[in-house]
Design a protein that fits this description.
305 residues, 2 domains, mainly beta
Length: 305
């Protein structure tokens, strides 16, 4: 009887062990299955990189490109392109890219100034470089202060007056004038005339220089003003031989004409005239009249330089 009870007890104990073993296997199997499933799910999700890709806000650009194919213009570079149907030169710098909102200065690196070729448009207002079609970097890496108008073109070249910064600390106005002859297709520029501002080379004059005309890429006629960074007035004319760089300077003359057949140029001297103001209180008027300088009298002729 006891033997039978012992055998029965042993059988129940063995059954309990088997049941416990099955439970343990089930738990282990569940854990393994959960891990495999979780790994599979993780592998199916696109992995995120730790590298953050920066976004460019083109309304507030912060970097400059290295070539003209980018939309943000480089400073100290002159671009050629078409702006709303006109051939222009475009340039930018800190001054040209700064504007004001509510009296607070703001900077938009797309903004710059344009000068129209063969026209008198010289607006240092905020033109958007992104509107310049097919921009070409014509002049690069120069200490550019600005361009002057007008820009004159011939069949082969474009002539432009530029102002370049000068590092000479002894100069009150630290920049120099330069006239460039530019080949647009080759993107080559050659200085044909240059002079430090306020250096007293030209009697009574030392300011901005603008281009009046070019003659068969052989001669230029320039106008030089009396001062810079002021409300200056024209003082004289400079006739420049582009090839030899020789020149002739004449004060208080106008109506300059170059005759390549006779190798001469003609001009008239300026005389003072009283001109009625409208309205009478207009700037520069005295008792309803202002003094203006106009060509008059004899026509003079001299040999070209």
């Amino acid at each position: 009887m006891r033997q039978k009870e012992f055998t029965l007890s042993l059988s129940k104990g063995f059954a309990h062990l088997i049941l416990l073993f099955i439970i343990v296997l089930a738990v282990i199997g569940g854990i393994v299955y959960w891990n495999v499933k979780k790994t599979s799910e993780n592998n199916s999700i696109p992995q995120q990189s730790n590298t953050v890709t920066p976004t460019i806000d083109y309304d507030i650009p912060t970097t400059y490109p290295t070539d003209s194919s980018h939309k943000v213009p480089n400073p100290n570079t002159v671009y050629y392109g078409n702006y709303e149907g006109s051939e222009v030169f475009f340039y930018t710098n800190k001054q040209e890219s700064t504007y004001y909102e509510g009296g607070i200065p703001q900077v938009n690196l797309y903004y710059g100034a344009i000068v129209k070729i063969n026209g008198n448009l010289n607006l240092s207002t905020h033109y958007d470089f992104r509107k310049l079609n097919n921009p070409k970097a014509i002049i690069e890496n120069i200490p550019l202060y600005g361009l002057s108008s007008p820009i004159i073109s011939s069949d082969k070249y474009v002539y432009v007056g530029i102002s370049l910064k000068n590092d000479d600390p002894d100069k009150f106005i630290p920049y120099r004038n330069q006239i460039l002859q530019i080949d647009i297709d080759k993107k080559q520029s050659t200085p044909v005339w240059q002079q430090m501002v306020d250096n007293n080379t030209y009697e009574g004059a030392g300011g901005e220089v603008i281009i009046d005309n070019t003659y068969n890429d052989r001669y230029l006629v320039l106008t030089i003003y009396d001062c810079t960074a002021c409300e200056g007035s024209p003082v004289g004319k400079i006739v420049v031989n582009i090839d030899t760089k020789k020149e002739v300077y004449k004060k208080q003359i106008s109506d300059v004409k170059v005759d390549l057949l006779t190798n001469s140029f003609s001009y008239q001297k300026l005389s003072a005239f009283k001109e009625k103001c409208d309205p009478p209180e207009d700037y520069g008027c005295d008792n309803g009249y202002r003094t203006v300088m106009k060509p008059s009298g004899q026509v003079y002729t001299e040999a070209l330089p």
